[in-house]
Amino acid sequence: MSRREPRLCHETDVQLPAFVAGELDDAARAAIEEHLAYCSGCQFKWRANELVWRCLAQCEDVEPPSQLRRRVLEAIEALKELR
To answer: CB neighbours of 19 closer than 8 A, spacing ≥ 6?
Structure first.
């Protein structure tokens, strides 16, 4: 069954990463499980999130380039100047 409720779909969409990671409290987890029981659109997003998490779990950690922090901060400053 695919009974979409936009407000619930939005709330579920926002919380799906935390749901998949097991970071939600019991009440929030239960609310998402209830919504996923009938919403095929959110079920699809849930499966996609789970796939991403499984793929990420297989990746090895990498050390970011030493200049990355400086370059990101410089880019932020440049964007601020454009405003």
So the answer is: 28, 29, 32, 46, 49
